[in-house]
């Protein structure tokens, strides 16, 4: 371990922001290269590096200044990369499940085609409040868990799950009523 880096870490732990800037200068290039090898998406490289540096600064008090700071940063970045990949996978699964739901719903009684069902769903979603739309966005676009959502919006997990269930039920009823009207007009 480099003695100068150890001294910088101790200064950061004592509250010296300028020392943290020096640590950033030392490790920024290597950290970005590490992230680029694992996740070669340019906008995510900077985002994950930034998040890793923020996390490291927030938790610097728990770091042992006599260990390798670069390894610790790379471990933080690796976990952030893994979280991003999992979020992307959840989003892909949610989109697949939604499509399958539309197809199954169509097979069990809806005579509307998929385009019409999607149009009805979009119309029904426009009726939702901004808060309800935000919950749906967090769940189905961002792929966030109910735990992450509850922490982000300051509500309990039970409230998030219950509210999402109510929103989905309201959307289903709205789409069903639009399909019924459409079938009567046909």
């Amino acid at each position: 371990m480099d003695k100068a880096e150890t001294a910088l870490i101790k200064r950061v732990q004592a509250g010296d922001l300028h020392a943290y800037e020096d640590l950033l200068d030392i490790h920024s290039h290597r950290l970005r290269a590490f992230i680029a090898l694992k996740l070669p998406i340019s906008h995510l490289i900077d985002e994950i590096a930034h998040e890793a540096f923020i996390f490291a600064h927030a938790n610097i008090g728990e770091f042992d200044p006599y260990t390798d700071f670069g390894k610790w940063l790379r471990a933080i970045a690796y976990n952030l990369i893994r979280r991003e990949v999992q979020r992307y996978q959840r989003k892909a699964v949610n989109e697949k499940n939604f499509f399958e739901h539309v197809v199954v719903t169509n097979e069990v009684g809806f005579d509307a085609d998929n385009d019409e069902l999607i149009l009805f769903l979009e119309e029904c979603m426009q009726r939702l409040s901004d808060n309800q739309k935000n919950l749906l966005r967090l769940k189905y676009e961002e792929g966030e868990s109910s735990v992450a959502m509850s922490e982000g919006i300051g509500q309990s997990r039970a409230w998030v799950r219950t509210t999402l269930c109510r929103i989905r039920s309201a959307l289903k009823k709205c789409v069903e009523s639009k399909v019924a009207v459409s079938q009567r007009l046909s």
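The chain is about 80% helix and 0% strand. Residues 109-185 form a domain with the Arc Repressor Mutant, subunit A fold (CATH 1.10.10.10).
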